[in-house]
C-alpha cells in the first residue's frame, strides 16, 4: 500500500479568482511579501499493491479523465513514501501549532 | 523568489464526502485497486525574497489563521525549489498526455 498524490492546478494562463481573493486579503491580515497565490486541489489515493509503472500509468489516466479538467488544469502525480501522516516537521495543527 | 506550497487536508478522523464520492465512482469508471481517496486544497504562494526560517514561520502563521480551518484540517508547508512548472516528468496535460 502506498499513497499517490495527484495535484491539480489551473493552467498558468487561466485566471484564478480564488487565489486572487486570498492574495488581496493578505495585506489586510498583515501578511506582506507574497506576490501571487494560486489555489488548486490535492488528491491522496491509497493504492493497493506495488506502485509500479503500470499502477502509476493508471493513476495518470484517472487524473486525466476524472480528477482534472485538462482543458483548463494541469496535474502532477507523485508517490509519497509511507502511506502515513505527512512529514511531521513541516506539518502543523492548531493543537501543536509550534512555529519553527 | 521561491514557491512555497501549503497543502490543506481534512484530519484523518473527519469524514471526507468529496473523497468518498470520487472513490465510489472509480469502479464504475474501471479503476480498481484504490482503497481510499481524500481530497484537499493546495495553495502555491510566490514568496518574494529569501525563504528563510522567518518567512516560513510567517507562511505557517498564514496557513494556520487563514488557509486552513485547524479544527478539522491539518496543513503542511514546504518550499518548492524553482518557482517554475512542476516536475515535467510527473506532470501531464491533455496535449502531452504521455502515459509513462
TrEMBL record, chains A, B:
Q: Which domain of life is it from?
A: Bacteria
Q: One GO molecular-function annotation for this sequence?
A: phosphoribosylformylglycinamidine synthase activity
* EC number from the UniProt entry: 6.3.5.3
**Enzyme class, broadest EC rank:** ligase
**Keyword Cytoplasm found:** yes
Q: Name one Pfam family in it.
A: PurS
Which reactions fall under this protein's catalytic activity?
Answer: N(2)-formyl-N(1)-(5-phospho-beta-D-ribosyl)glycinamide + L-glutamine + ATP + H2O = 2-formamido-N(1)-(5-O-phospho-beta-D-ribosyl)acetamidine + L-glutamate + ADP + phosphate + H(+)
Q: Which InterPro entries match?
A: PurS (IPR003850), PurS-like_sf (IPR036604)
Pathway(s) the chain acts in: Purine metabolism; IMP biosynthesis via de novo pathway; 5-amino-1-(5-phospho-D-ribosyl)imidazole from N(2)-formyl-N(1)-(5-phospho-D-ribosyl)glycinamide: step 1/2
Q: Where in the cell is it found?
A: Cytoplasm
What does the UniProt record say this protein does? Part of the phosphoribosylformylglycinamidine synthase complex involved in the purines biosynthetic pathway. Catalyzes the ATP-dependent conversion of formylglycinamide ribonucleotide (FGAR) and glutamine to yield formylglycinamidine ribonucleotide (FGAM) and glutamate. The FGAM synthase complex is composed of three subunits. PurQ produces an ammonia molecule by converting glutamine to glutamate. PurL transfers the ammonia molecule to FGAR to form FGAM in an ATP-dependent manner.
User: Of which family is this protein a member?
Assistant: Belongs to the PurS family.
Q: What is this protein called?
A: Phosphoribosylformylglycinamidine synthase subunit PurS
Organism for this UniProt entry: Streptomyces iconiensis
